[in-house]
Design a protein that fits this description.
With 199 residues, the chain is mostly beta strands. It has one domain. The chain is built from three helices and eleven strands. Strands 3-4-5-8-9-10-11-6-7 form a nine-stranded antiparallel β-sheet, with no helix packed on it. A two-stranded antiparallel sheet has the order 1-2. The chain is globular.
Amino acid sequence: MIAHFDRRHFAAMLLATLLLPGSAPIARGQTASGGCWFRGNTSEVAGRASKHDSSSLALEGGTIQVCYGRPQRRGRTIMGQLVPNGVPWRMGADEATAIHVPFPARIAGVNVAPGWYSLYAIPEAKQWRIVVNGDAQRWGVPINDTVRTKDLGSGVVLTEHLDAPVEALTITLRPKSSSAATMDVEWENTRVRIPVERR
């Protein structure tokens, strides 16, 4: 009877691990929600100043997902001040912004295998450099030499001006075709469209 219970318990733990595609098992003091990884327990995450969100989109071969923190504008000047030009930015709040692709993909022009990755930006007034990093389960700052050793590559996307300001940073996955999408990042009066495509 005890051996039977142990086998079932092991199977349940294995299944729970497999339900988080491409991710490592959740360690003590960490939590996952809908595949998104957070540091700390659920009540700690819920009490943060910046709420957390995700966007997902089904394409041929599976569903891509982005997990991110949503800082608020609160009357501040964002681009060029709170988010300075030329400085690596986590493109969100708290944990690093993370993306999961279930198939071989190209993110901002960077070829990646199926799995989880973190993203950060180096913004400028007219363009952002989007960096794809191999460590998806990390706090968003600092983006230092240790973090950057896991950079897989980067690509440049142009900025667009929004007439109506966006209060909370918003990331939305939008389809371009059955195998390609854009990851649209909007905050204040700026939007960038990061290409994500199956290869």
